[in-house]
Amino acid sequence: MELPVRVYSPESPLRHPGQLLREMFRDLLASRELAWRLFVRDTSAQYRQSILGYVWAFIPPLVASLPFIFLNAQGVVAIKDTSIPYAAYAMIGTIIWQVFVDALNSPIKTVTSAKSMLTRINFPREAILLAGLGQVIFNFLIRLVLLVGVFAWFKITPPATAWLFPFGILSLIMIGFMFGVLLTPLGLLYNDVQQLIPIGAMFLMFLTPVLYPQPEGGLAGWVAQWNPLTPLVTTTRDWLTLGATNHLPGFLIVSGVASALLFLGWVIYRLALPHIIARIGN
């Protein structure tokens, strides 16, 4: 595989934005084969070196949803007015949420694991991001088995809008990946960022209508209304289970803003990474 030759200059690439964009997309295309090899290597290592194997893909959404299902069944937590049985509602919500969490963790996780390669080999850094993105999609495809099982167990018939469900998943991947890419340069310098991401993701899940319907009033309703993840999660679940959704405008706005910020994160990642590599390589 022939990789493009890079010549680093002390002059800021921002002085020539057209050239910067051409180089970014050139490297993105050139990194596809390497990204595939990294994806195959990392995915094989992840599941081959564990006893449970692919079962690990099912565990996060199950661990997140089963306690709430139990508490709701015992009356400790009263969650009503769900369009489908609550157990199915919670499990579908956590499966959708896990896509966002995987995408959020992916950039910093894959780039950190490739530190030694980054300091020794000159290659398109986009390959690492693409490999991590591939793992996010692969894990979701595995969880589709669990999703199909939920629909079969609870005898839920998907509505006509179910074909839109992948677009919701792609939007959640995009916004999670956007946050992850923006945090990656800082995370490479300070391990605290990697420690805070899982804590922040868990806290954010309780502020997002993942395990409960969106509140209509009060402080919780206000928080959910202004939470950018609310329209993504609710619209994606509504398309798959309900058909009609009231959150489509918010879904489109958040998706559009996330796509712009993801591009900005890519630019920051590209500009900052050579300096960070030089720092961690010393």
Question: What is the topological layout?
Answer:
Blueprint: H1 17-30, H2 32-48, H3 59-73, H4 86-113, H5 115-120, H6 126-153, H7 165-189, H8 191-207, H9 218-226, H10 229-241, H11 248-281
Would you write up a description of this structure?
This protein has 282 residues and is mainly α. The chain has one domain. The chain is built from eleven helices and no strands. It has helices at 17-30, 32-48, 59-73, 86-113, 115-120, 126-153, 165-189, 191-207, 218-226, 229-241, 248-281. The two termini are 29 Å apart.
At a glance:
The chain is mainly α and 282 residues long.
Annotation keywords:
282 residues; mainly alpha; globular
List unreliable stretches of 5+ residues: 1-8
Helix proportion range:
over 70%
- Total separate domains: 1
Terminal Cα span: 29 Å
The succession of helices and strands, N to C, reads HHHHHHHHHHH
Query: How is the biggest beta sheet arranged?
Result: none
How many H/I helices?
Answer: 11
